[in-house]
Amino acid sequence: MTAFEYDVVVIGAGPVGENVADRVVQGGLTAAIVERELVGGECSYWACMPTKALLRSASALRAARQLPGAREAVTGRLDAAAVLGRRDSFASQWRDDGQVSWLESAGIALHRGQGRIRSARVVQVTGVDGVTVTLTARHAVVVATGSSALLPDIPGLREAAPWSSREAASAASVPRRLAIIGGGVVAAEMATAFGALGSSVTVLARDGVLPSAEPFAGELVTESLREAGVSVRLGANAVSVRRDDSGTVHVDTADGEQVEADEVLVAVGRIPNTQDVGLENVGLAPGVWLAVDDTLRVVGGGGWLYAAGDVNRRVLLTHQGKYQARAAGDVIVARARGEKVDDSQWGRHAVTADERAVPQVIFTDPEVASVGLTAAAAAAAGLRIRVVDYDLGSVAGSSLHADGYKGHARMVVDEDRKVIIGFTLAGPDVAELIHAATIAVVGEVPLDRLWHAVPAYPTVSEVWLRLLETYGR
Ligand SMILES: Cc1cc2nc3c(=O)[nH]c(=O)nc-3n(C[C@H](O)[C@H](O)[C@H](O)COP(=O)(O)OP(=O)(O)OC[C@H]3O[C@@H](n4cnc5c(N)ncnc54)[C@H](O)[C@@H]3O)c2cc1C
Ligand SMILES: NC(=O)c1ccc[n+]([C@@H]2O[C@H](COP(=O)([O-])OP(=O)(O)OC[C@H]3O[C@@H](n4cnc5c(N)ncnc54)[C@H](O)[C@@H]3O)[C@@H](O)[C@H]2O)c1
Q1: Contact 372, 357 (CB under 8 A)
Q2: Which ligand 1 atom is nearest residue 37's CA?
Q3: Closest listed ligand to the CA of 18
Q4: Relative to the alpha carbon of 96, which ligand is closest?
Q5: Which residue ranges does the record assign to the Pyridine nucleotide-disulphide oxidoreductase dimerisation domain (predicted)?
Q6: CB under 8 Å to 156, separation ≥6 — which residues?
Q7: What is the extent of the structural domain holding 250?
Q8: pLDDT per position as a tens digit, 53-107
Q9: Which of 181, 255, 268, 273 to mutate to test the pocket of ligand 2 (most atoms within 8 A of CB)?
């Protein structure tokens, strides 16, 4: 059996694993990464990039249709084949050559195959040909194996060959009818995308649309999906599924309704990729989310085992996983060199923003961009808050941006500290606006000082001034 030794071994070459490895190499250590599918992970081939490519063309078309002059120039429909083609290129045709070259240029060794921890700091890699390689880590092993779609226990569902987000993101054609079970982020984005691409879409949103966001966001998205012809069934609970001999899928709901579709997409959350990583060999339970301390060390993992990204369930977002990767890489280097670990709040090796300041953009129509706590989450945390709302459509910049601009903004203020702890925008093209709020939340900028951050006229960002005026000086 071939054996190698590195300072750090990372299992999983998604965006998070790649960034951990890069960071430790930049810190002067050696690193190997183990990947069983494509280097680049879920985000590159079946999640962030292809789904946003599916959504972008429809968004540009909608924007043009909201403006007299531009509207008249747009005569055709969305070209679904062209959209799917652009999506294919953003998924790099499901080839990872580009990412492999990047690993090489970054000085990271790649071992292809299923990685399994055999004992403390020892990882065995089994390639598709069954050949095994043993990797020993001098300092740390990092599990960055990500997550997979959860398939709920609905009778008949598995046999009906449902789509997960993978099949939706990589669909070769647009189904005539698409049923979606779930109302979260994947469901809302895919309903927006496939509705625009020409599918007749039904969303079975048992727990509502975007239930974790501020309520106005889900309401605006539901209204707009319905206006676009999507059937959104709030509270509908799928209880059985059957695909008949003609290929049609029948989804029964608890209230006795039936939905017929050509494909059914299941989007009800994720499970961790920890079933087959060898956790049982080091006294940990397989198949569970890996709990970590503030420096990403696995609880009960002997001090050498780290977990970053989706697999630790802190935040299931690429950018936040990469933030964890930077902290994990740096802390592994610091510990290897015997340097001081700075795990104080907002310290170099702590992932404080995971709890306080996670930004997210949901690329629906309208877009939903948020950071920090919702009003409900802040109240549940026992904070003394004030919620400040403003109609985004009545800002001068918004009315210029699009005729009939409809949107809403909310700022959640911690009344004891007079700082913003949550901010949500729902409206056309708000995605690029959220970073200002992220800086205000992370920087804990006092409201008094924010009066001096003057938004340019006439931009949508003037909503900041309107929110401050509504709050009062
Ligand atoms: C449809 C969809 C859209 C999304 N859109 C966005 C978005 O717009 N923005 C955003 O920030 N986030 C988005 N996300 C979330 C984002 O995809 C994840 O947060 C991100 O991919 C997590 O990165 P990761 O590196 O932790 O895991 P992954 O990307 O899942 O990578 C893990 C890698 O580990 C490999 N692996 C697993 N087990 C083993 C093993 N035992 N041995 C070897 N290799 C292994 C896998 O093959 C995979 O390549 C989306 C998710 C979905 C499902
Ligand atoms: N733009 C983005 O940032 C983006 C896009 C897509 C996905 N993601 C990430 O991917 C992750 C997974 O997305 P997701 O939409 O699968 O999960 P989610 O957690 O966002 O939503 C799942 C929804 O399904 C509902 N649900 C659970 N069980 C159900 C059942 N049996 N029947 C009907 N509904 C049920 C839940 O109440 C929840 O609202 C998210 O955590 C998100 O962070 C991010």
Answers
A1: yes
A2: 47
A3: 1
A4: 1
A5: 358-464
A6: 240, 241, 242
A7: 158-268
A8: 999 999 999 999 999 999 999 999 999 999 999 999 999 999 999 999 999 999 9
A9: 268
CATH of the domain at 445: 3.30.390.30
Structure tokens, 401: 């941006």
Strand partners, 244: none
Q: Clarify whether residues 380 and 438 are in a common domain.
A: yes
Q: How many CB atoms lie within 10 A of CB 3?
A: 11
Inside any domain, residue 77: no
Name beta bridge partners: 403. Answer: none
Q: What is the pLDDT of residues 163-178, one digit of tens each?
A: 999 999 999 999 999 9
Question: Residue 398 in contact with residue 341, Cβ under 8 Å?
Answer: no
Residue with tokens 């961790």: 272
Report the C-alpha gap between 149 and 301 in whole angstroms.
Answer: 26
User: Are the beta carbons of 265 and 252 closer than 8 angstroms?
Assistant: no
Domain count of the fold of the chain? 3
Say if CB 413 and CB 386 are below 8 A apart. yes
67 C-alpha to ligand 2 centroid (Å): 33
Q: Give the pTM.
A: 0.98
- CA 44 / ligand 1 centre spacing (Å): 8
